[in-house]
Amino acid sequence: MLRRGLHWLSEQQQIFDFVRSNGLARRFAERFVAGETIETGAAVAEALSARGITVSLDLLGESVHEAGAAEVACGQYIAILGRMSQSSGVEVNVSIKLTQMGFDVDEELCCRNMVRILDRARQLGGFVRLDMEGSAHTQRTLDFFEHRLYPVYGDHVGVVIQSALRRSTKDVEHLIGLKARVRLCKGAYLEPPDVAFADKADVDRHYVELMERLLREGHYPGLATHDERIISHARQVVAREGIASERYEFQMLYGVRRDLQDQLKAAGHRMRVYVPFGTQWYPYLMRRLAERPANIAFIFGNVIREGLSGR
Ligand code: FDA
Fold first, then answer.
1. 0.70 cut: is pTM over it?
2. Residue 302 Cα, ligand 1 centroid: separation in angstroms?
3. What is the residue with the minimal CA distance to atom 37 of ligand 1?
């Protein structure tokens, strides 16, 4: 019930308008979001890179319904790529939601925006990941990737597969055949049971199956999870089968399991942190709270503690 409520709240723009003006809510968001500007995002990227952890910067925003807003977001992404390339030690790598680039307004507009971003990323030797959104967008996103972007940009662009979706076994097989770069995650959206596994144990089991396949046959997969059990399983497969650490990377979200991020790095694995920033942080924050409602108490406790200590 609480999860459903948080997912519903993530879609309520009026509530965001109210929440954004509230200082306490902004303090909540700081735990998972690296501020509202390019500079705050870049500062976090620099700090992580100095610790040997690579990043993917994400300008928060999704479900854009006007061409003008998509063009503005495109310009901001181009500025982010430039900013990353000027930071010493920072790899140029961003994550983008197609709906932010106008996918639901006009696919040609979205394509023009993505071409501008990818031209710049390629020029800088960078990489652009297309985040995966709800299942209504899965086929369209995969088609757009396969037919419009991947043939031109190859290894500069990659997609995401969600183990929650029943279809993902087939999709992973297809993407392995294409030699495309895949990030594997569990999936952050509420989906109907005919499309997605309702039972979390099935989502986890499917993740392990897809992960093994990608580790053995995939092209530099990104294993995006904070699930310790799954991560140790990955480490066993890698050790047992002698899979070199340059052939895959672990990925986690900014603010989640920082201890585990450092442990993996120290053990010689590649570790990337997904760093979201920007003013549109509300739906993202609500999805993080829905994944782990205990975060509400955790963040609230921290904010109060910091408040009492006069931070
Ligand atoms: P699970 O939810 O089972 O959590 C395992 C453990 O991790 C928990 O017990 C807890 O300890 C910790 N944990 C997980 N989430 C936490 C949180 N929010 N706060 C604190 N602890 C937490 N989704 C999507 O649909 N499309 C996408 O493109 C992406 N992209 C993406 C990139 C990267 C780098 C990551 C890490 C994740 C995504 N996701 C995503 C989100 C993903 O689908 C999923 O919702 C979250 O990663 C949570 O799932 P876990 O695999 O961590 O497992």
1. yes
2. 21
3. 224
